[in-house]
Amino acid sequence: MDSTLSELGEYISAKLADAVLSVESSFGELTLNVAAESIVDVARFLRDDSQCQFSCIIDICGVDYPQRVDRFDVVYHFLSPTQNLRIRVKLKTDEDTAVASICEVYPGADWFEREAYDMYGILFVNHPDLRRLLTDYGFEGFPLRKDFPLT
Fold first, then answer.
1. Sheet holding 20-26, edge to edge
2. Which of 70, 106, 128, 130 is in Cβ range 3.0-4.6 Å of 92 for a Cys bridge?
3. pTM (predicted TM-score)
4. 3-class SS at 92?
């Protein structure tokens, strides 16, 4: 399994040399660290390329590292049923820089991006309906940020 992941990681990084910053393989999953501005192209490549075929989006989530300048990681998980593989794609962003929505590539990303916006305040550009999903419309703040007040 690890040789398959290594080969796939090398293949993807060769094809997307400008977009892929690094490739890691651990716990039976491949992780691509990508440039934020390339996420739509990366997602489209992973879906459409015959050696990838990651046709299913599993999840999109945020991770907060308030000590960093780019405090958020946006983490995407994809599945290739034909390859029987999963892949994780990560990018970094800050509080003010919007990440391109991948809803045009994976329509199922809609609610995952809305959840990341609602819980972390991560902005997604070109999202068809970026509004709160889990909190009330009048809610202020983003409850999964590490600096969110608990009282």
1. 20-26, 29-34, 85-93, 72-80, 56-64
2. 70
3. 0.94
4. strand
